[in-house]
Amino acid sequence: MKIIRLKIYQPQAHYRIPFTYQRRHTYPLPPYSTVIGFLCNILGINDQKKEEYKKLKEIKISIAGRFEYKTTEYIWFRNLSKKSHIDRFGYVENRSINGHIEHIGGQSPVSIDILNDIQLIIYLSHDDENFLSTIKSNLKNPVKRLEIIHLGRAEDWVVFEEISDLDITKFSYQQFDADFKHFFWIPERIYTNGHSRSIAFDSISGLIYNLPTFCNVQDFDKTYNRHGQRIFQYIKVKLNDGLLINQSILFDKELGLPIFLAELNNE
Length: 267
Description:
By secondary structure, this protein is an alpha+beta fold. The protein has one domain (2-263): Alpha-Beta Plaits (2-Layer Sandwich). It is built from five helices and 14 strands. Strands 1, 2, 3, 6, 7, 9, 10, 11 and 14 form a nine-stranded mixed sheet that branches. It is globular.
């Protein structure tokens, strides 16, 4: 079985933790749903009924990475409530402040955490090697892309440092007591390619999250709006900071990093 290895650099990124508002916190790694959206973008999948999307739902993904430092930016968000508009402009029909026409509504101050100088290592595996080749081709020549290629916010552009396909059988299972100096998403259900070894999820250190994976867009059949409300599937994972003790791990000797391929499709 083939596996695609991506090495990605991002000058800045924000992988938003849901339900954080006044100060918007970020995960240290993109969640699976963000990587899936990234793949939908480069494959040109704008309809969940497409055969490519059905194929994509069988993909296995491993995500690791690190960043140099984190900063917090202070920004303004537009508030479109009637009350906020009146508080800013005085009355509904007015849009002028000091002789300048502005957008309707008011403004709300928001702090947003930003990661800087990010290095990501993403592994993609699929039973259908032809589909995996299609992904690689579109990563190298994204002629089908729906929008600017990004991970996180629309402005969080990516630089591909490596796009390579490798044979998963060349990776070995090894037992380590080591600090790999990377963050990892470690899923409860790890794809082992038929290997008998498994990771003791409960014994791994890390914070437990239910991360979003694939989604259904509500009322897409009526609106054809792929940016509509999304109803996600979730998987249980741990966010590990690199310290792994007494675990048998699928290992990439070339980069010196473990691989945790997540089984994503719950259907």
